[in-house]
Amino acid sequence: MNNISNEEFDCHFLNEGFTAKDLLDQTIDEVSSSNDKDAFSAADLGDILKKHLKWLKALPWYTYPFYAVKCSDRTIGKTLVVIGTGFDYASKTEIQIVQSFGVPPGRIIYANPRKQVFLIKYDATNGIQMMTFDSEVELMKVARAHPKAKLVLDCKAVHRLSVKSGAILKTKQAKELNIDVIGVSFHMGSGCTDPEIFMQAISDAPCFDMGAEVGFNMYLLDIGGGFPGSEYAKLKFEEIARVINPYFPTDSGVTLIAEPGRYYVASAFTLAVNIIAKTLVLKEQTGSDDEDELSEKTFMYYVSDGVYGSFNCIFYDHVHGKHLLQKHPKPDERYSSSSMWPTCDSLDRIVECYGLPKMHVGDWMLFENMGAYTAAASILNGFQRLTIYYVMSGSAWQLMWQV
Ligand SMILES: *Cc1c(COP(=O)(O)O)cnc(C)c1O
């Protein structure tokens, strides 16, 4: 059960057969006749539900996702509370967000091996037990502030060859301090492109025999985040699932958790930006002034949002949104194009691509997969930078309350 009511969702319900993309097009039509041409985004909450169902189907049935809350905003969080995921937090701001969703303490993990003491105390007071650690210093902080914590040993920091011995040492230290260690975790890092790396990490994880050796009942394996959130990612979610599954029979007795972030949200968001200026760059002068007679040409479009805004993900996260064409080019009308933000900073290049139709000032460009680690999808310090329209189909809404 949860205490979220329907009214709390600030969400447009889509009529049968009407999609989030249709709503974007409709909104573009509406704002085009006004003076307000600010960028905006549409978030399809049904897409998040779809991701969750895919998760349940592809991974071992006992894989419990703890959503990495650094990714996104309130409405997304509330959707995930209803669906029933857990939450992974790493900072004060994040735990405040998670608590404001009304998430039960058993569904929260403090997944930062370098912890702030006041947050450890906060967890103790609020019944949050799971947290990661990676060193004796962290163990001592926990022993003082939250002796009943259930610790998960973060193996990322440990050199691979010495994973086992390092892990045994730290587990022994926990035993001496009388703190419970329930399992191990690793976070592959985001943007992992090789499924073998997942496989390696799982087979290297110094697991449960080690617990027995030290006298702990270790039963939890946290496989971290890094699951791709869009179908354009090099490494597909299904490939990761295929690598993971053979290690976990239906009755493995292991509690498997993960910390997906982008996986749940990336593809839910589409950003619409307006073209505010345009220039033509020639690679080869043909002596003609006519735009349509030039052979090698690139159009530069300056749009109303950029890498210092919604596209911050390009620097921060090496993720590029993908152009979604609002109008389709004829075969002989495909131009190479760059989209820029109007600061005129040469770094502020959003995307370069070939095959866009010729666009005009006042046209809109759409970018898919803008849901993770972008300002298009988040409320920063309580201020929403741009308008987000949340949408969901009636059938997804009903299904959401049943999963
Ligand atoms: C950011 C982060 C995640 C989520 O990463 P994604 O690539 O978005 O899945 C998971 N765990 C930790 C510790 C993180 O810092």
Low-confidence stretches: none
Radius of gyration: 24 Å
Helix/strand-derived category reads: alpha/beta
> How many domains, in number, for the residues?
2
Q: What percent of residues are in strands?
A: 15-25%
Task: Write a concise synopsis of the structure shown.
The protein is an alpha/beta fold and 403 residues long. The chain is built from 13 helices and 19 strands.
Written description of the protein model:
The chain has about 400 residues and is an alpha/beta fold. The protein has two domains: about 10-40 and about 265-395, Lyase, Ornithine Decarboxylase, Chain A, domain 1 (Beta Barrel), CATH 2.40.37.10; about 45-265, Alanine racemase (TIM Barrel, Alpha-Beta Barrel). Helices cover about 30% and strands about 25% of the residues. The longest helix is centred in the first third of the chain and has 14 residues, at about 45-60. The site of pyridoxal-5'-phosphate has 17 residues, from helix 11. Keywords: Phosphoprotein, Pyridoxal phosphate. Its cofactor is pyridoxal 5'-phosphate.
What key attributes describe this structure?
Orn/DAP/Arg_de-COase, 9-stranded mixed sheet, PLP-binding_barrel, elongated, Lyase, Ornithine Decarboxylase, Chain A, domain 1, binds pyridoxal-5'-phosphate, EC 4.1.1.17, Ornithine decarboxylase, about 400 residues, alpha/beta, TIM Barrel
Blueprint of the fold:
Layout: E1 12-14, H1 20-32, E2 40-44, H2 45-58, E3 63-68, H3 74-83, E4 86-89, H4 92-100, E5 108-110, H5 117-126, E6 130-133, H6 136-145, E7 150-154, H7 163-176, E8 180-185, H8 195-204, H9 208-214, E9 220-222, H10 237-244, E10 255-258, H11 262-265, E11 269-282, E12 297-303, H12 313-317, E13 322-324, E14 335-340, E15 349-356, E16 364-368, E17 379-380, E18 383-384, E19 387-393, H13 394-400
Parallel strand pairs: 1-19, 2-19, 3-4, 3-10, 4-5, 5-6, 6-7, 7-8, 8-9, 9-10, 12-14
Antiparallel strand pairs: 2-11, 11-12, 11-16, 13-16, 14-15, 17-18
Helix pairs in contact: 2-3, 7-9, 8-10
